[in-house]
Amino acid sequence: MISRFFKKFYLHVVIWTILLLLPFITYLYQPDKIADFKIYAAATHLVNILFLATNFYLLCYFVAPKFFFGHRKTFAAAIGIGFFIYVGLNYIIVYFNPDGELAHLVRENILFVRLIIGPGIIYSLCMITSSMIFLYDEQARQKELNKQIALEKTTAELTILKLQISPHFLFNTLNNIRWLIRKKSPDSENTIIKLSEILRYILYEVDGPKVELFKEIEHMRNFIALQTLRLPIEGNVELTIDDAVKNRMIPPLLFIHFVENAFKYGVDSKNSPQIQFQFLETANGISFKSRNKILRHTESRTNEGIGLTNVRRRLHLLYPHRHDLSLITTEDGYFEVILKLVMDEN
Q1: What is the DSSP letter of 246?
Q2: How far apart are CA 178 and CA 68, in angstroms?
């Protein structure tokens, strides 16, 4: 930002310096004309440049921002007043010219051209350029503002989506604890410890945009441990992690919905559950796979639909065009989720 400001500053200095020195370039090619150099002409040229530069920046950074969009008449009036002042300035320059320029202009009948047409063209070019720079800067500022608004909206939306997932997860965990207490299970104390770790993670670890994957995996282990304790029939529940992905940075609570659903629809009271979770490193990111035998078909899937919609929305916001989510029901009655993420970091 600072670098861009200085580049613009230097560019303006160079342009105005060129305009200031332009009348004197001929002396480089015709040094004999230096003897005809007139201080009054140089001084009046400097006054013209200072006046145009002053009006240029007043229009660009004060008049246009204040009046261009809401008070067009005031904006036009300010330009008009500046033009009449410029005409008056040129008349004073001509009138006090010691070489009798005024009499010469009247005699040649070109006073109107010298005082109106010439200054009008120069002043108009200056004001048009100033207005174009203002509009360009305003467009860039508006684009930056829209980008900031979109970022804030995305951040707020992600927070809402994350909060929608966490209470559902906590509700299921509390149901598990109630079930263990009713059963008077000796694992109740360990379950409360697991719950405290889950709450600590949700309250203190997921306030940032990303966490280390190994923390998310530990959170999943706690959840899986709680769910495994209440399995009515012993089964196979596996969590496999490629060591290469443990230090990856990922958005928190991104996978827990799929873990919840694997237990929700992969466990019943008659069959042995078969549930597998897997994290693998890919060429440009990570891959998560959830696979479970579909054992429960009768429950309403309204909450699942809401949860899946939330996950899809988060993926769209966090990994636009950089994720691939596949939901597959196999012929042998398994449900598979395969989520591939293209990561920013290596």
Answers
A1: T
A2: 67
Handedness of CA 263, 267, 268, 269 (dihedral sign): negative
- Tens digit of pLDDT for each residue in 106-155? 777 888 888 888 888 988 999 898 889 888 888 888 888 777 767 666 66
Q: Are 192 and 207 in contact (CB under 8 A)?
A: no
The length of the chain, given as a count of residues:
346
Strands (E), 24-143: none
Look-up: residue for tokens 């969009």?
Answer: 69
Amino acid at 9: F
Tokens matching residue 334: 């398994």
DSSP letters spanning 10-77: HHHHHHHHHHHHGGGTHHHH-GGGGGG--HHHHHHHHHHHHHHHHHHHHIIIIIHHHHTTT-HHHHHH
To 10 degrees, what angle do helices 118-183 and 188-200 make? Answer: 170
SS3 328: strand
3-state secondary structure of 212: strand
Domain boundaries along the sequence of the chain: 38-159, 164-342
The tens digit of pLDDT for each residue in 212-255 reads: 999 999 989 988 888 887 777 888 899 999 988 988 998 888 89
First CA to last CA distance, the chain: 28
Lowest mean pLDDT among 73-77, 123-127, 160-164: 160-164
The pTM of the full predicted model, rounded to 2 decimals, is 0.54
CATH superfamily of 164-342: Histidine kinase-like ATPase, C-terminal domain (3.30.565.10)
Instruction: Name the DSSP class of 319.
Output: S
- Cβ contacts of residue 228 below 8 Å, gap of 6+? 237
Which residue reads 């530990």 in tokens? 218
Q: What percent of the chain has pLDDT over 90?
A: 14
